[in-house]
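Hey, weird one. I pasted the Zn-dependent protease sequence into the form twice and got a warning about non-standard characters only the second time. First submission, copied straight from the form history:
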Amino acid sequence: MTITVLDTGPAIREVLRATPADRPALLRAVLEPAAGMYRHFPGEVDLVAMHRMASGFPLDRDERRCLEALDALEGADAWGRIGRALEDALAVQLAATPDLAVPDITVLIVLGDPGDPHFMGPNLGMTANGSTPGYVFLNFWPYPENLARLEATAVHELNHNLRYGSGVVIWDPATVTVGEHVVSEGLADAFARQLYGDDLGRTRIGVPHRDDDAVFAKVVSGLEVTGMQNFAAWVHGDETALRYGATPVGLPTGAGYAAGNRLVDTYLSTTGHTAAEALLADSKEIIDVALRHA
């Protein structure tokens, strides 16, 4: 298999320096090599619209600010660091699960939108997605904390890609449970922590509520909820749910990540498994073991 980190930095710079009328077409060319990440969406996907929805850099403002941020990402060797981290992480994973089926993976790195208050605020300048086998999407604003976590963030998303690309754990958008999503975030964080330690390996939005028993209990009460349309509230929290038109359930940002870390940590400590060894563990087993030993 091959991991291909698309060299999007120069192309993003070209988009930002182009006349506004030319930017959508140039951006579409940047995004096209990773269009397969939307293959399960109904109908033809507008890649530029999806870029905006995912808090990608704007096409009509903040050019200078975005160019300076791009300089920061390039200065931090974001593309090189992420590529090396993914190769190293894959080697660790295959050592633990040598028979794992691994797809070719295309990695798309983009710059975020500094004018998006949800992205820059509750999301702490980072969104990412690795749940579609064969693709990893990483969207950064170069806050120092995000630059420090480039490798860990990429490895977190790789963990998702390998879990759902294995053919063992199936993600059906209609029937998948909140429990599976929450556990997957805990497993991905645990894998990142296995490689980079607790400080860098934990997803930042999940840290504030990791020891909050009331938040944990609330998330646990929704683990059997099905359907991806419900995940924004239960996993990411009410602010994200409101942004995308979903119904809040009374949870803070990152609640599902916090609960997922607690569930997976308890499971790993109880069983003695490493995160890499637990890649394909059944989420129901993880939840059952964790709640018995909570």
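That's the output from the first submission. The warning seems to come from a hidden character in my clipboard, not from the data itself. The first helix runs from residue 8 to 17.
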